Amino acid sequence: MKDDDRLRLVEETVPPESGTTTPGTLASGTLAPGTLAPGTLAPGTLAPGTLTPGTLTPGNASLGRGAPSPQAVADAFDGTRLTQARRLAALTKKEVAERIGVSPAAVGQYEAGVTRPRPDLVPLLAEVLAVPAAFFLPGRPHGKLDGSMAHFRSLRSTRAYQRAKAVAFVEQVWELTYALEKRVRLPYVDLPGFAGGEVHSGSALPRDPMGAARALRAHWGLGTGPISHLVRHMESRGIVVVFPQADEDAVTVDAFSTSSLPRPIVVLTPNRFDDVYRHRFTAAHELGHLVLHGDAAAGDSQQEREADSFAAEFLTPRDSVLPALPARADLRRLAELRRVWGVSVDSLLYRCREVGLLSDSAAGRAYQRLAALRDQPGFATEPVSGYPGEQPVLLSRAFDMAAAETALTVPALARELAWPVARVRELIGLPAHRPQLRLVP
């Protein structure tokens, strides 16, 4: 197997200097519902990876095929896994303590590794936190993060426990990616400035948001026109993108990302909006964090503004979109441009004000008019489900190839990760498995 035999995401980028379009038409960079053009994975271009001879897959040595005994888990208990499971369950130490009949201080000691739980508590912890008992065993790769290592799209409205849950989720995304990458060579990480980048590692983009957006477009060969299938472009450059199901417990968590793991990870959620135009802008916003703030602690409101500026310039380059923008608040024209550039009318209105085409008062009146049109054709939200090119496929296609080439199954992967099978299916993006009812006449 050659070193460059990797999962390839075939792209169709907009030709350079194609920033203008005929009003009312769909340019090559538009989002045609139901199509799967750019970014489709070409069959047979995903090659399996290899394991070093004589090595054990993480989890196999300690987990085996049978469930470990409570005594065995208690003897080797990993407190950091308890912390991770508790955060994934969005529970406090006090809540866990009440459910297993110990003090909150005891739970804290378990997590810190000061003491270990009694064997009889292991099944209770597994039940309360909805994980297999083997989850608490050591010996598996663990991508440990803290809150300062992840950028949150809606930081102010996100509570501490929600951030902790999100960070634990990203840890699991990396663990799954690691497990698949042992079997499948994923795309090279091509992100200038990313410390773990495999293409032009160490090279940096300009520090100003607009300059960085233009430089990244040039580096990725995206031209100056509309970008089709942004999420697929990101995946093809080695960025892991995940679009989990809506989480009622984290409705304020819009999106988050981190560049503090061996691969950059972006998590986009439908928790606040299920609209493809907002979805694309959010993806570009998180991409901005990856290239601008990878070496900075998260949580600065200035970083959020810079990420917004990056996203606007990346999706709608000023020099390309300016000739197409109306000189007045023409909402019908902006709705047409929404389809061409793949950004919301709100974003285009903001762009009009930003470049001086609209005054603050005129833009304010336009936003009021727009609010009355939210449910009308051309202005209503469009679910992400209608746009396959904006839905992540990297992990699911990697699993499919690993299954075909190495006979990997979901239950086997779940055993290796010590996760519930349902959790593996969720993160890979596989539909929930339901037994088929068979009626015998």
Short synopsis of the structure:
Helix content is 42%, strand content 3%. With 441 residues, it is an all-alpha fold.
Name its key features.
single chain; four-stranded mixed beta sheet; 18 helices; 4 strands
Characterise the protein shown here.
This protein has 441 residues and is mainly alpha-helical. It contains 18 helices and four strands. The chain has helices spanning 60-63, 70-75, 79-88, 93-100, 104-112, 122-129, 160-181, 209-220, 230-236, 276-292, 301-315, 318-321, 331-341, 345-354, 360-371, 394-406, 410-417, 421-428, and strands spanning 151-152, 240-242, 255-258, 265-268. It has a four-stranded mixed beta sheet with strand order 1-3-4-2, with helices on both faces. A hairpin with a 6-residue loop joins strand 3 (255-258) and strand 4. Helix 3 packs across helix 5 (104-112), helix 4 (93-100) crosses helix 5 (104-112) and helix 17 packs across helix 18. The model is unreliable at 10-64 (pLDDT under 50).
Task: Report the order of strands and helices.
Answer: HHHHHHEHHHEEEHHHHHHHHH
Put simply, the count of helices is 18
Largest sheet: 4 strands, mixed
Nearest-angstrom radius of gyration?
A: 23 Å
Strand content: under 5%
Model regions low in confidence, pLDDT < 50 over at least 5 residues: 10-64
The end-to-end span amounts to 52 Å
Strand order of the largest sheet: 1-3-4-2
Query: Which percent range fits the helix content?
Result: 40-55%
The assigned structural class equals mainly alpha
Approximate shape:
elongated
